[in-house]
Design brief:
By secondary structure, the chain is an alpha+beta fold. The protein has ten helices and 20 strands. A hairpin with a 2-residue loop joins strand 1 and strand 2. The two termini are 14 Å apart. The chain binds coenzyme A.
Length: 388
């Protein structure tokens, strides 16, 4: 896998960190003689969806050696994985794509976006003064693991796109591998606690630099998670207050970062939007019935699915804020679309309207696109802050 990604072979430290999260019974390899020439894996996650939490196969470590590419090995691994996920009864699969054109053919739709941001500290004055009860501390790994796990758990509730992470995963986040330093410091780990206990944290590194005008360091924020507005503001105040740094950079931030509204200069942070999670409805009926909807309505979808034929056909969705049912029907469809398009709208990160404009969705009954958008709307923009 490392060879296929153009990287160096893993060190013992990296292998040890990887071992704890690897699910060997969900790991695939193709062998050519004794050599591994292709790999793929799955992490058994749970994903927050609007109004619920559903099992989700996190597809990862997909690679085919350059000597064996374009012979169908990826396609064979996708087949095996999706059949396995379906047999296990997991309604969803999700992944991060190295290149955007790879996974649409397997029914994955681009479901969330994320932002790469940069804040110039010189423009980072806060609009309001800080409240007094900011409870921040720098903590060691032993303290951070249970505390960050709790803060993560609290933040996952109600945030579509977030994966549940247990202590194993938080240890992995905190592994602080040499590979990830790229000339910057080891991790700084900041915990926010309030009366209820740990409710936010930040992990960052500092890359110091000096030039003729003085200190010109960069604070590289690896993660900032907050379960309350107080934790959120306190943690951003902290990272933007670290001396000797000129800027804060971060990847995988939410595209609707509230920081913009905390700062006097709302042109900060400078933001570039990138693709986030790709979602595959492996079992369309279960997936549609497993989330909640903003308004009560009934729609019939004509679903096309090249790769997972069990999803093909007419599906009636009846749902609202308190529950949903999905079943096969012979009724005439209101909308026709691919399973990948349902993946793209599933977490409310895209609108049916946008996909219709792009010629991907056909409206067969007038007004069906607007009704679908009203139904699938959610109160939060989906965001997945953890990579896999
Ligand atoms: C991407 C990768 C896994 C593809 O593996 P592969 O075994 O060559 O793929 P397949 O032979 O099964 O290709 C299936 C189809 O997808 C297309 N495809 C594969 N990779 C593609 C890419 N990067 N961009 C566009 N199309 C791609 C193929 O052309 C083929 O199309 P066709 O059926 O119309 O001919 C492989 O090139 C690789 O390992 N790349 C480097 C690591 C990487 O990016 N991994 C993905 C991590 S998310």
């Amino acid at each position: 896998m490392r060879r296929a990604f153009g990287a160096s072979l893993p060190t013992d430290e990296e292998l040890a960190a990887s071992r704890e999260i690897t699910e060997f019974d969900r790991t695939l390899a193709f062998f050519d003689g004794p050599e591994i020439v292709a790999t793929a894996g799955i992490f058994s996650y749970e994903l927050t969806v609007p109004g619920g939490l559903l099992p989700c196969a996190g597809v990862t470590r997909v690679s085919v050696l350059s000597t064996h590419r374009r012979r169908g090995l990826l396609t064979a691994m996708m087949r095996r994985q999706l059949d396995d996920i379906h047999e296990r009864g997991e309604p969803l699969a999700a992944l991060y794509a190295s290149e955007a054109p790879i996974y649409g053919r397997f029914g994955y739709g681009l479901a969330t976006y994320q932002a790469s941001v940069e804040v110039q500290r010189a423009h980072a004055t806060f609009g309001k003064t800080a409240s007094a009860n900011e409870q921040l501390s720098l903590v060691d790994v032993a303290t951070a693991v249970p505390a960050f796990t709790r803060a993560w758990e609290q933040s996952t509730r109600g945030q579509p796109g977030m994966l549940r992470l247990d202590e194993r995963w938080v240890r992995n986040l905190l592994a602080d591998l040499e590979l990830h330093r790229e000339g910057a410091s080891p991790h700084y780990r900041v915990l926010y606690q309030d009366d209820t206990g740990p409710s936010g944290f930040a992990i960052y590194r500092i890359k110091m630099d000096w030039d003729a005008s003085g200190p010109n360091g960069t604070l590289r924020l690896e993660m900032l998670i907050a379960a309350s507005p107080e934790a959120y503001a306190a943690l951003w105040r902290h990272v933007l207050g670290v001396d000797l740094t000129a800027r804060v950079t971060a990847e995988m931030r939410p595209i609707d970062e509230p920081l913009r509204f905390l700062l006097a200069d709302s042109r900060q942070p400078k933001t570039r939007v990138e693709d986030g999670l790709w979602v595959r409805l492996v079992d369309v009926l279960k997936a549609l019935a497993g989330r909640r909807y903003a308004v009560d309505d009934r729609l019939v979808f004509g679903v096309r699915d090249q790769f997972c034929p069990w999803n093909r056909g007419r599906i009636e969705l009846q749902g609202g804020p308190n529950g949903a049912q999905a079943r096969s029907t012979t009724a005439s469809p209101d909308l026709e679309l691919d399973a990948a398009d349902l993946g793209a709208v599933y977490l409310s990160g895209n609108r049916f309207w946008t996909l219709q404009r792009a010629g991907r969705i056909t409206e067969l009954r007038q007004g069906a696109v607007a009704r679908a958008d009203a139904m699938f709307a959610a109160d939060r923009v989906p965001w997945c802050p953890s990579h896999f």
